[in-house]
Specification:
The chain has 297 residues and is α+β, with helices and mostly antiparallel strands. Helices cover 20% and strands 28% of the residues.
């Protein structure tokens, strides 16, 4: 099994456990026997990843308990190399731990004939992710060569990702850049925060529309940190509407999650190198809130 590490400052065994379903003790046995390599070199399971490494694990593939499910999926484009999907809000991208059903991966297994195997049985085809409650456009790899190509584009910041977010309050500046490092929150390890010792994180934002007490903003992320836009808008003093983790606990709208939508994705085709742009329209739950705000204006 071959993986491209999409995490930094994480132990190798912890990462492999998350993507394979193997226990850390079993991974240690494989590592001690020389069956784990990072960039072609045999390593111990306690190695700390820097991100972007190619990891090879020689072990019998764990029989997957992840099954295909007939979950409706909006496919914006597909060919023999990749598929571009419009992920709905509320759908977790891939299984984790004992939760092996009702995820995007289950839907992909049902709706697509082929998926890359680089990231193991728990994340077939998954090149990049969106939060569960974030909707919008995502690229899925059908072949391993396409997966490696798309991952390399993301690593080299050759992919353009533009999001739409409804922020709390009125943002005064028409546009700006938030260049603040993001790391694990010192108060809650399940959340992220702006930290001095975090990883570089850059978000460009531009105001599209100002409403009474709210702002519709376009965000372009130059890095792909966990919860990046949510953390950066919170840092700006304008958290995303509907975001109970980083924003207000009490919300004025009946929402199932944050109003954050992956709107535009521009990538190069993994085989032809042709630049391609895909657009996911605003979902109904998002546009309905904007309609209400327009009436209030």
């Amino acid at each position: 099994m071959i993986f491209v590490a999409d995490k930094k400052d994480l132990r190798l065994d912890v990462y492999l456990a998350s993507v394979t379903g193997f226990t850390r003790s079993y991974i240690k046995i494989l590592s001690d026997d020389g069956n784990v390599t990072v960039n072609g070199e045999k390593v111990k399971c306690g190695k700390i990843l820097k991100g972007g490494e190619t990891i090879e694990l020689n072990a019998p593939e764990k029989e997957s308990d992840i099954t295909a499910q007939n979950i409706p999926l909006s496919i914006l484009y597909q060919d023999s190399e990749m598929a571009i999907i419009d992920k709905p809000q509320g759908l977790t991208v891939h299984p984790a731990g004992r939760f092996t059903k009702d995820t995007l991966v289950n839907a992909l297994l049902y709706n697509l004939k082929d998926l890359s195997t680089i990231n193991g049985v728990y994340r077939p085809g998954i090149v990049h992710r969106l939060d569960k409650e974030t909707s919008g456009v995502m690229a899925v790899a059908k072949t391993n060569s396409a997966h490696l190509n798309l991952s390399k584009q993301i690593e080299k910041r050759q992919v353009t990702k533009i999001y739409l977010a409804l922020a709390e309050g009125v943002i005064k500046q028409d546009k700006g850049v938030i260049n603040e490092k993001i790391g694990r929150s010192k108060k809650n390890r399940k959340l992220m925060d702006v930290t001095f010792d975090g990883r570089e994180a850059i978000t460009e934002y531009e105001v599209i529309e100002r409403y009474k007490n709210y702002t519709l903003v376009k965000c372009r992320i130059l890095t792909g940190r966990t919860h990046q836009i949510r953390v950066h808008l919170k840092f700006l003093g304008h958290p995303v509407v509907g975001d109970k983790s980083y924003g207000f606990k009490k919300q004025k709208f009946d929402l199932q999650g944050q109003l954050l939508h992956s709107h535009i994705l521009t990538i190069r085709h993994p085989s032809t190198d042709q630049e391609m742009t895909f657009v996911a329209p605003l979902p109904q739950h998002f546009s309905e809130v904007l309609t209400k705000l327009e009436k209030l204006n």
